[in-house]
Predict the 3D structure of the following.
Amino acid sequence: MDGDAPMVAAAEEEPHVERLPADLLAHVLSLLPTFHDLAMAGGVSRRWRRAVGRSLATRRRLSFAGQRTGDDSTARLVRAAINLRDLDISRSCWGCHISDRGLLEISSAACVGNLTSVSLWGLAGITDKGVVHLVSRARSLQHLNIGGTFITDESLYAVANSCPNLKSIILWSCRHVTEAGLVALVNKCPELECINVGGMRVSPESFAGLLSISPALRIRSIPQILNADVVQVA
């Protein structure tokens, strides 16, 4: 029996990762790129669940793209990510089910005022109500992707009035946006460098009018399904 003791002890020995200091474990988990990875890590043990919470507080980028998530779970993680700068909750074939209620809850997060990049690509469940609430509090926003949604000029007016540092925006296939919304955006966002208008119902003459306001503006019409990077401006 004594000869078996070392083998039993070795089998019961903690994995090396469990010996990591709490701060180091939280740092390692902060490198995980997606919501799914975080959720899986949080299910390992109570210690790992606490580490996930600590890691969220240090994250600057959080992506829910392609994950099965909803209003409550998304808002809960965003609220924990107090230093977040880059938020991607784009929809994919797997179904990211975010509604206006989710955007309203996310809007109350401490990090929202410091967000510089947000992607809401293809979220069919959101309307002007949720978008206006979010962008009105995201005053540091530089890159915004709201392509593939059913927003109207109301959302663009809110962006124009609340996001003076906006550099790029994707409006691909936003068919309820009109020339009036685009003009307000270009007039009130002096830093705007690039706008994607593919699939919209706005006349070419309207785009010429935008260039008369801002000659250096780059107007793109090719569909671009990007994550939180939105449009990379050189």
In short: The longest strand covers residues 61-63.
